[in-house]
Amino acid sequence: MELQQDSSKLGALSATTSRNLSSSSSAFVSAIQSPFFSPRTPKSIGSESTRYETANASNTSVLTTADNHNSTVLNIPSLLSSPAFHKLVAEEKIPEEISSPNGVCTSTLSNYSQGTCNGYSERREKTKKWERSHWRAFARSSTSASSSNRPRSCDVYIGCHGRKPYLLRFVNWLRAELELQGMSCFAVDRARCRNSWSHDAVERAMNGATIGIVVLTRKSFGNPYSIEEIRNFLDKKNLIPIFFDVSPGDCLARDIIEKRGELWEKHGGELWMLYGGLEREWRDAINGLLRVDEWNLEAHTGNWRDCIMRTVVVLATRLGRRSIVDRVNRWVDRVAKEEFPFPRNEIFIGRKKELSELELILFGDISGDGEKEYFELKTRHRRKSVVIGRSEKCRVEERGKGKENKGKDPVVWMESEKEIEMQRVGSPQRQFQPLRRHPRRKRSKKILYGKGIACVNGDSGIGKTELLLEFAYRFSQRYKMVLWVGGESRYIRQNFLNLRSFLEVDLSVDNQSPGKGRVKSFEEQEEEAILRVKKELMRDIPFLVIIDNLENEKDWWDQKFVMDLLPRFGGVTHIIISTRLPRVMNLEPLKLSYMSGLEAMSLMKGRFKDYSIVEIDALRVIEEKLGRLTLGLAIVGAILSELPINPSRLLDTINRMPLRDTSWSGREVSTVRKLTFLMQLLDVCFSIFDHAEGPRSLATRMAQVSGWFATSAVPISLLALAAHKLPEKRQKSRLWKICLRAITCGFTKSYIKKSETEAASMLVRFGIARSSTKQGNIHFHEIVKLYAQKRGAAGVPHAVLQAICVRGSIPQHLDHLWAACFLLLGFGSDPVVVELKVPDLLLFVNRVVLPLAIHSFITYSRCSPALELLRLCTNALEAAEEPLVARVEKLLDRSLCWRSGKTNAQLNPYLWQELALMRASVLETRAKLMIRGGEYDLGDNLIRKAIFIRTSICGESHPDTVSAQQILGKITRLLTTVQG
């Protein structure tokens, strides 16, 4: 009898709880759902049709029954407002505007979502009106439809309880990752279900799930639905608990009841009394968790990624999907090797407040030790609207609106084709309000917190990259992966598209447009390739995108805004930009100041910490002359650590170093005009290298050639090859030395390789270069590269070009191949730096230009750069052909006696033929690419030129001529089709 009374009490109280929660709670609210999402956000971001194992990863549906992929995903803030729920149980439909703008959280009817998803009050009213008008029809049809339209059984049921942003971020990530791997999921917080029909649908999904995951927090032990989920899956022996911010050792019934330990001292007790349950059932559920110790999955802020990947492997193993396990293991191994561009700085000094502020800007909250760095977090009640975009008209309108607005409305994203701006529509939630760190400042920063984007501003060499690298290492477990993008204007688009390999996106865009008979233009193909990468970053899976050293807000190639490359701000993917620009996209940056005197002194002392007062004064003088620039301080510390020299002697050596007469211009002036002492310090370093290895030190030569490579990491072998090709001062060499060199070549190969490694190690130890996570690569700072360009001899660019032509590889050295093309062809307004002889030019075009253009066009859909590269190459070949033709004509006009002489002019006709045939190959390649962009007229003109050249030299029956004629026939048919 007592048991029956308790059961009835539980049922009654449960029903009461459901009624009370129905009007003021949402089921599954994302931790990162931002108030900056516009109602005009696209309803679906799409997915690759062939990705993984038919994974259905739609990010915008509230309840998705995937007929094609056998996937059922439920994110329930309010099942009553979900169109998919009505399709599931009553075949009813609701207005499209009620669906969530964000895929993870989707309630616009709850008080909580009113605070989190600001700006949807009008939609709330429309939803309520629609509910009242459709309630009766839904009630009549639900009885019969509930039995016939049951949800398909899903692979994984995920149950959680709580509103904390970190919990919701974790659960969203887990669900999205499982879906991406091809496992159908049903994720829900049952305490947010608003009515009995919602509870019935959830229970059917729970009973039909193959495996049940319950994410356990301290609140879960006082939640009746979490206890019911634990008991349900324990009875079926398919429970996998994930302990979130608690450990299995904390989940002991006795400790909870008796309030033992720090966790339960405040939150423990008779938790079953919170919902009127039975103590026996509660104890059985808690004690049952101890029996599920096979997996022991724990999630805390330092292992989110590892926990989620291990959960995927566990589920795939239990479901018998070995291919998923193998794929995840391969991905984990690759990320461990390629995620970060540089190894972590184990002696990172200072920047604690900057790291904490970055965390606050991105997440809207601070956890762990970062809280100690903030002695005051004061809310600012008023916020000015910030326009991000390039539309001046919108900015004027925004300023006009700001006069009427009193700062009481929230901010949402408004997106159009030309701009993205923020406007007010409701009151912002507390965690998204801007905060102020320094109480003595009269004017607060206009940094917007919790929006997922941060900008770090500072002078070159001040330590922006070091700060971002340390932040990435500290918080890497909160993201699936850290994606590092070099921000140099010439390479930023290629660097962004390089993310395709990590995101597993195919960028070879189909040139056929959905419209019948229409071919996509080159611009459309490029935009689609970028959109595919952006879509992967806009899923519920969090990534950290770091754009390091952004040089310009506009792309160098087509002057488009860099903002077009970035995913929508406010999502789960976070973006950090480091730049020397005063402002980026009208966002207030976090200005990186110089290190404190104590931190600078610690960085300069190196290994030796005990110096006399005189030496400390010398270090302070060096610090002042370097302007506390982190790069210079690190080089000083490296010298003092590597050499038996004291600071005063080092200071005297630097002062005695003569100033070089170098002329700086343009961008270089702002970078190095105040770095005279740093230039002298670099001269000291190179003098040390020359003193240690002789006047032709390999380390010095490798540093000299580094200035002409691309901004990415440079392979040591490529650096050494370019260094060996530098011209020697003495041009003549005795015959016996040449013979000795040829004889001992095989014996000295291993020694040369060893010397290359030693030279690179010396550059790293002295702070001139830094090691890379790519084995056999080193990276040079921008200031060092500028210095190397001015210090190097005239033949250095030519040596770099030769090395890249001989050993360059497209998969490994893509950026450096482009750098070589910049030196030779002179893109845009840049002058031609290197002029090659005709044989070398032919070799470079064959090995570098043609493969690079085809690879960029086909693999990355970089149509405009590839076509521009081929156009400039054609011009270079024509320019090299003109003097040869003139010489050949002059030779043919001369008498026979002149032609009998042995002169170099006799070789010109054959060289001219090779040059002309190479030009025909380039023209044919351009014509083929023109077909893929629908430029048939230009393609027809190009291929006719190629046919004329090949017919004149090879004849009409030659295979190459026949192939070109076939291309002409194809273009003619296409032209006829288009014109007809």
TrEMBL record:
Superkingdom of origin organism: Eukaryota
Domain TIR per the UniProt entry, residue ranges: 152-271
Pfam entry (one): WHD_plant_disease
Coiled coil: none
SUPFAM superfamilies: P-loop containing nucleoside triphosphate hydrolases (SSF52540), Toll/Interleukin receptor TIR domain (SSF52200)
Example of a GO biological process term: recombinational repair
InterPro entries for this protein: P-loop_NTPase, TIR_dom, Toll_tir_struct_dom_sf, WHD_plant
Protein's name according to its UniProt entry: TIR domain-containing protein
Taxonomic lineage: Eukaryota, Viridiplantae, Streptophyta, Embryophyta, Tracheophyta
